[in-house]
Amino acid sequence: MKKLLLVPLLIGGIVTLAGWGAKTVFDQLAVKSEDNVPFTKVKRGSVTFSVVARGNLQGGNSKTLTAPMTGNQMMTITHLAKPGDVVAEGDVVAQFDTAEEEFKLKEAEADLAEAEQQVLQATNEALAKEEELNYELIKARSDLRLAEIECEKNELLPTMVQKQNNLSLEANRARVRQLEHDYPERKNAAKASIAIQAAARRKAQVQSETARRNISLMTLKAPVAGYVNVERNTQSNFMFPGMVLPLLQLGDQIRAGMGVVQIPDMKTWEVPAQISEEDRGHLSIGQPAEIAVVSQPGHKFHGKVSNIGGTSGPPWNRRFEAKLTLEDPIDKLRPGMSVLMTIRTQTIDNALWLPGQALFETGDRKQVYLRGASGFVAKDVELVRRSESQVVIKGLNEGDVVALINPSETTQKKAKSGGEGALKAIPK
Questions:
Q1: Nearest to 151, CA basis, from 164, 137, 138
Q2: Domain 100-217: which CATH class?
Q3: Integer Cα distance of 332 and 296 in angstroms
Q4: Cα angle 87-91-93, degrees, rounded to a multiple of 5
Q5: Pick the CATH number of 354-417 from 3.90.550.10, 3.20.20.100, 2.40.420.20, 3.30.70.1230
Q6: Measured in whole angstroms, how far is the alpha carbon of residue 347 from the centre of its chain?
């Protein structure tokens, strides 16, 4: 009987030992699996949130030079400065083909020379006509006087001769009256002829001056000292959505009024940068920033946010352009230099924080993988504030250990790679 009673006890002891052994093995496996999961600890302290972005220096106070309004629909570029060329005030930065305007100038100059001759001829003809009118009037008055003298002899002359003298007197009087009446009109007619030719001369003069002005305008000069930014060719025949237009170059045809180059000065510097849409609400105009120019190590620059642009880009990568103005430039700066800017937006004191990759989002849920006695377990937390590298959270304690990756992904990879699993770890 005693032997029969010992059998169940022995069986129970063996089962208990087997269970304890299995638990020990599984605990060892859990710890071993954790060794492949990178982790971090929840920290408490002051967290300063900053927006960090990269950009390139560009000059401010840009002066845009456009194709002149010459009446031509299209103009061909025959000279163009290279992007980034440093220019002084008055330097030629672009020129257009002036062949058509030079042809117009030659035509206008020829018309002007002809008009000058026509004016001279009309003036001489008017003077001659005036002399002729004066001569006719003097002669008519002289004939009238002679007729009056002849009439004074009528008492001594036959009746027939008296009548002839009287008729001659009336005729001469009528002629003098007519000449005196027509003299201003005929003189004004001569002056009108001069005016017509003078108008033709003025027209030719305006045409020649316009052609000269157009030729002058077709040479674009830098209005201020700075450097050259060549505009993009919006007249390109090969355009499709999202395409980056090529820069203007020699031989390109552009329309009047189209921008050709910009001349930013080298005293006012700006830094445009593309920033994630998540940080848009944390930026404002006038916000201070620290700026580091890559080619000027050890020199700290300061600036302010001067402009915040619109948001663009695909839904998974929405970004906006922010522009900063440099407040303390130096002479060594040049356009195109790479810049790293840091804009401090907020400081949260006594905060619990983690690296950004330790927070996982599933729909509206925010989770971390918190290490417990049996491994990493998903735990919901409250997100207070996020930056590109840090998150401030609630729902954990300082010193808690959380995974930096999803532990289940590590287990799946390990199983696929043929690593030791639970079944292989249990002794046969």
A1: 164
A2: mainly alpha
A3: 8
A4: 80
A5: 2.40.420.20
A6: 35
What is the distance between the alpha carbons of residues 178 and 201, in angstroms, rounded to a whole number? 35
d(CA 18, CA 25): 10
Structure-token pair, residue 276? 């994630």
Count Cα atoms within 13 angstroms, Cβ side, for 276: 12
Looking at the predicted structure, is the pLDDT value of residue 394 above 80? yes
Query: Residue ranges per domain, the chain?
Result: 52-58+264-347, 63-97+219-236+246-262, 100-217, 354-417
Distance of alpha carbon 401 from alpha carbon 40, whole angstroms: 6
- Asked if 314 and 367 count as a contact pair (C-beta separation under 8 A), the reply is no
Span 63-97+219-236+246-262: which CATH code?
A: 2.40.50.100
- Reported confidence tier of residue 140, pLDDT bands at 50, 70, 90: confident
Residue with tokens 């093995």: 25
Tokens in use for 42?
């929840």
CATH class of 52-58+264-347: mainly beta
Which amino acid would we find at residue 144?
L
Token pair in block for residue 27:
């605990």
In degrees and rounded to multiples of 5, residue 249 shows phi and psi of -150, 175
Q: Tell me what pLDDT residue 27 has.
A: 42
Within 8 A by CB and 6+ apart from 212, the residues are: 105
Q: Which among 276, 361, 356 is positioned nearest to 322, based on CA atoms?
A: 276
Residues 317, 352 contacting (CB under 8 angstroms): no
Task: Tally Cβ neighbours within 10 Å of residue 147.
Answer: 18
Residue with tokens 């189209």: 258
Length of the chain: 428
- Those residues whose C-beta lies under 8 Å from the C-beta of residue 263, and which sit 6 or more positions away, are 62, 63, 64, 65, 87, 93, 222, 223, 224, 226, 227, 228, 229
Q: Are strands 375-380 and 365-372 parallel, antiparallel or unpaired?
A: antiparallel
Spatial separation of the C-alpha atoms in residues 54 and 275, rounded to whole Å: 9
Report the C-alpha gap between 274 and 335 in whole angstroms. Answer: 18
Q: How confident is the model at residue 224 (pLDDT cuts 50, 70, 90)?
A: confident
In a 3-state reduction of DSSP, which class is residue 116?
Answer: helix
How many Å apart are CA 152 and CA 353, to the nearest integer? 136
E-only strand ranges, 81-122: 86-87, 92-96
Q: What angle do CA 284, 290, 293 make, to 5 degrees?
A: 125
pLDDT tens-digit readout, 349-383: 888 999 988 999 888 889 999 998 888 999 999 99
